[in-house]
Amino acid sequence: MLFMITSSHDYSTCQTHDPVKGPIFTETLENLGDHGVKVHKMYSNRLEHTLFIVCEADSFEQLDNAFDPILEMGHLEVTPVMERK
Q1: From edge to edge, which strands make up the β-sheet containing 2-8?
Q2: Which element (helix H / strand E) includes 78?
Q3: Chain centre distance of CA 20
């Protein structure tokens, strides 16, 4: 099943330059495959502090487990999507 995940936060909670949260956020994204989540594409809008991830997973539970380390670092919106032919 395909999903569009939108991860956003505001400037005051940005983890990019945070010495603790930054590596956790990066490692979480790098390790999505370890949870059975296949990333097709990842796009970011740094000026709006928003990340867009098109990914594939067999279940919502896989996504929940994969993103668990960063759940408190902002807002995650998960939308099931499909390719329209």
Answers
A1: 38-45, 50-56, 2-8, 75-81
A2: strand 75-81
A3: 18
pLDDT tens digits for range 27-41: 999 999 999 999 999
Distance CA 80, CA 85 (A): 16
- At 2, phi and psi to the nearest 5? -90, 145
The helix or strand, by DSSP H or E, that contains position 3, with its residue range, turns out to be strand 2-8
pTM for this entry: 0.92
Where are the alpha helices (H) located in 4-82, listed in sequence order? 21-30, 60-67
- Calpha distance 43→27 (Å, rounded): 17
